[in-house]
Design brief:
The complex is a heterodimer of chains A (about 110) and B (about 120).
Chain A lengths: L2 E3 L4 E5 L4 E3 L2 E3 L5 E7 L5 E7 L5 E3 L5 E5 L4 E6 L8 E8 L7 E3 L3 E6 L1
Parallel strand pairs in A: 2-12
Antiparallel strand pairs in A: 1-4, 3-9, 5-6, 5-10, 7-8, 8-9, 10-11, 10-12
Chain B lengths: L4 E3 L2 E4 L5 E6 L6 E7 L5 E8 L2 E5 L7 E4 L6 E5 L8 E8 L9 E2 L3 E5 L1
Parallel strand pairs in B: 2-11
Antiparallel strand pairs in B: 1-3, 3-8, 4-5, 4-9, 5-6, 7-8, 9-10, 9-11
Classes of the chains: A mainly beta (about 110), B mainly beta (about 120).
Protein backbone atom coordinates (compact mmCIF):
# COMPACT_ATOMS: atom_id res chain seq x y z
CA UNK A 1 0.00 0.00 0.00
CA UNK A 2 1.17 3.46 -0.75
CA UNK A 3 2.25 5.60 2.18
CA UNK A 4 3.90 8.87 3.00
CA UNK A 5 6.54 9.58 5.61
CA UNK A 6 6.96 12.99 7.14
CA UNK A 7 10.36 13.48 8.69
CA UNK A 8 10.21 15.59 11.80
CA UNK A 9 7.07 15.71 13.89
CA UNK A 10 8.00 19.19 15.09
CA UNK A 11 9.81 21.93 13.18
CA UNK A 12 10.65 25.36 14.58
CA UNK A 13 11.76 28.30 12.47
CA UNK A 14 12.24 31.97 13.13
CA UNK A 15 9.92 34.46 11.54
CA UNK A 16 11.32 35.33 8.12
CA UNK A 17 13.32 32.12 7.82
CA UNK A 18 12.92 29.39 5.25
CA UNK A 19 10.33 26.74 5.97
CA UNK A 20 11.12 23.21 4.82
CA UNK A 21 8.77 20.36 5.68
CA UNK A 22 9.76 16.96 4.39
CA UNK A 23 7.59 14.30 2.82
CA UNK A 24 8.63 11.08 1.12
CA UNK A 25 6.25 8.72 -0.58
CA UNK A 26 6.50 5.03 -1.30
CA UNK A 27 5.34 4.19 -4.75
CA UNK A 28 6.73 2.77 -7.95
CA UNK A 29 4.24 4.83 -9.90
CA UNK A 30 4.07 8.60 -9.35
CA UNK A 31 1.00 9.11 -7.23
CA UNK A 32 -1.19 12.10 -6.62
CA UNK A 33 0.27 14.03 -3.70
CA UNK A 34 -1.22 16.69 -1.49
CA UNK A 35 -0.27 18.99 1.33
CA UNK A 36 -2.97 19.99 3.77
CA UNK A 37 -2.72 22.43 6.68
CA UNK A 38 -4.65 22.25 9.93
CA UNK A 39 -4.84 25.35 12.08
CA UNK A 40 -5.72 24.87 15.75
CA UNK A 41 -9.28 23.65 16.23
CA UNK A 42 -9.99 23.79 12.53
CA UNK A 43 -10.40 21.35 9.66
CA UNK A 44 -7.98 20.41 6.91
CA UNK A 45 -7.31 23.01 4.27
CA UNK A 46 -5.69 22.13 0.96
CA UNK A 47 -2.39 23.92 0.40
CA UNK A 48 -1.41 22.39 -2.91
CA UNK A 49 -1.48 19.22 -4.97
CA UNK A 50 0.68 17.37 -7.46
CA UNK A 51 -1.12 15.62 -10.28
CA UNK A 52 1.79 15.08 -12.74
CA UNK A 53 1.22 18.30 -14.68
CA UNK A 54 4.28 20.10 -13.31
CA UNK A 55 6.96 19.09 -10.84
CA UNK A 56 7.00 22.45 -9.05
CA UNK A 57 3.62 23.18 -7.59
CA UNK A 58 2.62 26.51 -6.14
CA UNK A 59 -0.02 26.68 -3.48
CA UNK A 60 -1.74 29.16 -1.24
CA UNK A 61 -0.09 31.42 1.32
CA UNK A 62 3.26 31.43 -0.52
CA UNK A 63 3.90 27.70 -0.13
CA UNK A 64 5.26 25.51 -2.88
CA UNK A 65 6.40 21.92 -3.25
CA UNK A 66 8.64 20.13 -5.70
CA UNK A 67 8.00 16.60 -6.85
CA UNK A 68 11.28 14.70 -7.21
CA UNK A 69 10.80 11.24 -8.60
CA UNK A 70 14.44 10.27 -8.13
CA UNK A 71 14.17 11.01 -4.43
CA UNK A 72 10.49 9.98 -4.06
CA UNK A 73 10.02 13.27 -2.28
CA UNK A 74 7.48 16.07 -2.19
CA UNK A 75 8.89 18.56 0.28
CA UNK A 76 6.97 21.70 1.19
CA UNK A 77 8.77 25.03 1.29
CA UNK A 78 8.12 28.69 1.93
CA UNK A 79 10.89 31.27 1.55
CA UNK A 80 9.92 33.38 4.54
CA UNK A 81 7.92 32.14 7.51
CA UNK A 82 5.17 34.22 9.03
CA UNK A 83 3.71 33.86 12.49
CA UNK A 84 0.39 32.90 10.92
CA UNK A 85 2.01 29.82 9.34
CA UNK A 86 2.09 28.09 12.71
CA UNK A 87 -0.06 25.00 12.23
CA UNK A 88 0.12 21.29 11.58
CA UNK A 89 0.96 20.22 8.06
CA UNK A 90 0.01 16.90 6.55
CA UNK A 91 1.33 15.26 3.43
CA UNK A 92 -1.09 12.84 1.79
CA UNK A 93 -1.13 10.47 -1.14
CA UNK A 94 -3.89 9.00 -3.23
CA UNK A 95 -2.99 5.90 -5.11
CA UNK A 96 -3.62 5.19 -8.72
CA UNK A 97 -6.40 2.86 -9.65
CA UNK A 98 -9.99 3.05 -8.63
CA UNK A 99 -9.53 3.94 -4.98
CA UNK A 100 -9.80 7.54 -3.93
CA UNK A 101 -8.83 7.27 -0.32
CA UNK A 102 -6.23 9.63 1.01
CA UNK A 103 -3.44 8.19 3.11
CA UNK A 104 -2.00 10.81 5.41
CA UNK A 105 1.41 11.20 6.92
CA UNK A 106 1.75 11.63 10.65
CA UNK A 107 1.95 15.40 10.38
CA UNK A 108 4.52 18.06 11.16
CA UNK A 109 3.79 20.74 13.72
CA UNK A 110 5.34 24.01 12.58
CA UNK A 111 6.23 26.58 15.22
CA UNK A 112 7.25 30.06 14.14
CA UNK A 113 9.39 31.93 16.63
CA UNK A 114 9.35 35.72 16.82
CA UNK B 1 -16.59 29.88 -2.08
CA UNK B 2 -18.44 26.59 -1.57
CA UNK B 3 -17.48 24.64 1.51
CA UNK B 4 -18.24 21.44 3.34
CA UNK B 5 -20.16 21.95 6.57
CA UNK B 6 -20.55 19.59 9.52
CA UNK B 7 -22.84 19.46 12.51
CA UNK B 8 -22.53 19.35 15.41
CA UNK B 9 -19.09 20.80 16.01
CA UNK B 10 -18.87 18.92 19.32
CA UNK B 11 -20.75 15.91 20.62
CA UNK B 12 -20.50 14.22 23.98
CA UNK B 13 -22.18 10.85 24.41
CA UNK B 14 -22.27 7.92 26.76
CA UNK B 15 -20.67 4.63 25.80
CA UNK B 16 -23.17 2.39 24.05
CA UNK B 17 -25.26 5.23 22.71
CA UNK B 18 -25.88 5.86 19.02
CA UNK B 19 -24.58 9.02 17.42
CA UNK B 20 -25.22 10.53 14.01
CA UNK B 21 -22.74 12.96 12.57
CA UNK B 22 -23.99 15.16 9.76
CA UNK B 23 -22.29 16.69 6.77
CA UNK B 24 -23.39 18.85 3.89
CA UNK B 25 -20.93 18.31 1.03
CA UNK B 26 -20.23 20.84 -1.69
CA UNK B 27 -23.34 20.89 -3.82
CA UNK B 28 -22.03 19.67 -7.19
CA UNK B 29 -19.75 17.00 -5.73
CA UNK B 30 -20.56 13.33 -6.14
CA UNK B 31 -17.96 11.56 -4.00
CA UNK B 32 -18.21 11.73 -0.23
CA UNK B 33 -15.86 10.57 2.48
CA UNK B 34 -15.46 10.21 6.21
CA UNK B 35 -12.11 10.35 7.96
CA UNK B 36 -11.24 10.41 11.63
CA UNK B 37 -8.36 11.69 13.68
CA UNK B 38 -7.82 10.32 17.15
CA UNK B 39 -6.07 12.88 19.32
CA UNK B 40 -2.37 12.92 18.55
CA UNK B 41 -2.64 10.40 15.72
CA UNK B 42 -2.85 10.40 11.94
CA UNK B 43 -5.91 11.27 9.96
CA UNK B 44 -7.40 7.91 8.93
CA UNK B 45 -9.73 7.04 6.09
CA UNK B 46 -13.02 5.43 7.07
CA UNK B 47 -15.23 5.22 4.01
CA UNK B 48 -15.99 6.63 0.58
CA UNK B 49 -19.45 6.86 -0.94
CA UNK B 50 -20.57 7.29 -4.51
CA UNK B 51 -23.82 6.79 -6.36
CA UNK B 52 -25.63 5.91 -3.13
CA UNK B 53 -23.33 3.11 -2.15
CA UNK B 54 -20.07 2.55 -0.35
CA UNK B 55 -17.22 2.45 -2.85
CA UNK B 56 -14.47 1.68 -0.38
CA UNK B 57 -14.06 1.25 3.36
CA UNK B 58 -11.20 0.68 5.75
CA UNK B 59 -10.85 -1.98 8.40
CA UNK B 60 -11.91 0.61 10.96
CA UNK B 61 -15.33 0.86 9.35
CA UNK B 62 -16.91 -2.19 10.94
CA UNK B 63 -20.55 -3.12 11.47
CA UNK B 64 -20.95 -0.42 14.09
CA UNK B 65 -20.59 2.23 11.41
CA UNK B 66 -22.94 3.12 8.60
CA UNK B 67 -23.28 5.96 6.14
CA UNK B 68 -26.27 7.36 4.38
CA UNK B 69 -27.28 10.10 2.02
CA UNK B 70 -30.85 10.57 3.18
CA UNK B 71 -31.63 13.43 0.83
CA UNK B 72 -29.99 15.48 -1.88
CA UNK B 73 -27.77 17.46 0.44
CA UNK B 74 -26.88 15.60 3.64
CA UNK B 75 -24.36 12.83 4.18
CA UNK B 76 -24.37 11.12 7.55
CA UNK B 77 -22.15 8.83 9.59
CA UNK B 78 -23.87 6.72 12.22
CA UNK B 79 -22.11 4.90 15.01
CA UNK B 80 -24.60 2.42 16.47
CA UNK B 81 -23.08 1.69 19.84
CA UNK B 82 -20.24 4.00 20.68
CA UNK B 83 -17.08 2.84 22.39
CA UNK B 84 -14.53 4.86 24.31
CA UNK B 85 -12.08 4.40 21.45
CA UNK B 86 -14.48 6.10 19.04
CA UNK B 87 -13.55 9.40 20.65
CA UNK B 88 -11.96 11.38 17.83
CA UNK B 89 -12.39 14.23 15.41
CA UNK B 90 -14.48 13.10 12.46
CA UNK B 91 -14.00 14.86 9.15
CA UNK B 92 -16.31 14.76 6.20
CA UNK B 93 -14.93 15.47 2.72
CA UNK B 94 -16.28 15.66 -0.79
CA UNK B 95 -14.88 15.72 -4.29
CA UNK B 96 -16.10 16.15 -7.82
CA UNK B 97 -15.65 13.93 -10.82
CA UNK B 98 -13.60 15.94 -13.29
CA UNK B 99 -10.30 14.13 -13.61
CA UNK B 100 -9.56 10.84 -11.96
CA UNK B 101 -8.19 12.26 -8.72
CA UNK B 102 -10.31 15.25 -7.92
CA UNK B 103 -9.27 17.16 -4.84
CA UNK B 104 -11.05 16.34 -1.61
CA UNK B 105 -12.36 19.29 0.35
CA UNK B 106 -12.74 18.83 4.07
CA UNK B 107 -15.25 20.12 6.55
CA UNK B 108 -14.27 21.62 9.92
CA UNK B 109 -14.90 18.35 11.74
CA UNK B 110 -17.04 17.06 14.60
CA UNK B 111 -15.25 16.36 17.84
CA UNK B 112 -16.81 13.28 19.41
CA UNK B 113 -16.18 12.44 23.03
CA UNK B 114 -17.42 9.12 24.34
CA UNK B 115 -17.64 8.84 28.13
Amino acid sequence: AQSVTQLGSHVSVSEGALVLLRCNYSSSVPPYLFWYVQYPNQGLQLLLKYTSAATLVKGINGFEAEFKKSETSFHLTKPSAHMSDAAEYFCAVIRSGSARQLTFGSGTQLTVLP
Amino acid sequence: EPEVTQTPSHQVTQMGQEVILRCVPISNHLYFYWYRQILGQKVEFLVSFYNNEISEKSEIFDDQFSVERPDGSNFTLKIRSTKLEDSAMYFCASSGTSGSRETQYFGPGTRLLVL
